[in-house]
Design brief:
With 217 residues, this protein is mostly helical. The chain has 9 helices and no strands. The protein is 68% helix and 0% strand.
């Protein structure tokens, strides 16, 4: 434990000496804040504009299950794990935060394009904790499925983390389908859109990306 703490401390000393690193983190945090604001208003618009639901080849053939607690607390655990990864890997903070922010913005743009209502028979998210952040109309694409897959891409070189977050992505995909919270297309498209978002982030934030891949740390 002591060796791990010392190693992390050394990482912070190294990144702190890099020119522009602090501004990069500040810019990343501000970008994330803007993306969350965009997501909030996009969710409101998508919900107000939501029209009729449609049939779904998977949802129409499976019963609905109560996944309220798993949906909410699983997402919280995911976010905590991402925060922890950033803490112990400071060189990855700028790229991780910027990529997540880009992911949120891309998803916000998608959810306002198609006004499909939620599947009629679905889990009601009764936990107050999620009500202010989740909307009935923000369906396409599934953030619960896409975000852990995004983290798997960021930490792709780490076989253990890659497997953990891919499994988490598949787990959440199953959860939202069992709860009829998302349509099948919301889930399956999430993997492809997330991959595209990650590749775009590599190009837009090249300096932060190279830092995150540096073997110096």
């Amino acid at each position: 434990m002591k060796a791990l703490t010392q190693n992390i401390f050394k990482k912070y000393k190294r990144v702190a000496s890099l020119p522009g690193f602090h501004f990069s983190i500040l810019g990343a945090v501000l970008f994330l804040g803007v993306s969350l604001c965009i997501n909030f208003y996009a969710g409101i618009y998508a919900t107000v504009s939501a029209n009729n639901p449609v049939t779904d080849i998977i949802l129409s053939n499976i019963p609905v299950y109560n996944v309220d607690a798993i949906f909410v607390y699983g997402a919280i655990l995911l976010c905590v794990s991402i925060f922890f990864l950033c803490i112990i890997n400071p060189e990855k903070i700028p790229f991780t935060v910027k990529t997540i922010a880009l992911f949120v913005i891309v998803r916000s743009l998608f959810i306002i394009l198609t006004h499909i209502g939620p599947y009629p028979n679905h889990t009601d998210l009764t936990l107050k904790l999620i009500n202010d952040f989740s909307f009935d109309g923000d369906l396409f694409f599934s953030g619960h499925t896409g975000l852990p897959f995004l983290i798997a891409l960021i930490y792709w070189d780490n076989k253990f983390l890659r497997r953990i977050y891919i499994m988490a992505s598949i787990f959440f995909a199953i959860v939202v389908l069992l709860g009829h919270i998302h349509y099948s297309i919301d889930v399956f498209a999430a993997f492809f859109i997330t991959e595209g978002t990650y590749r775009l982030s590599e190009k837009l934030f090249k300096k932060s990306y190279l830092l995150s891949r540096s073997t110096y740390f």
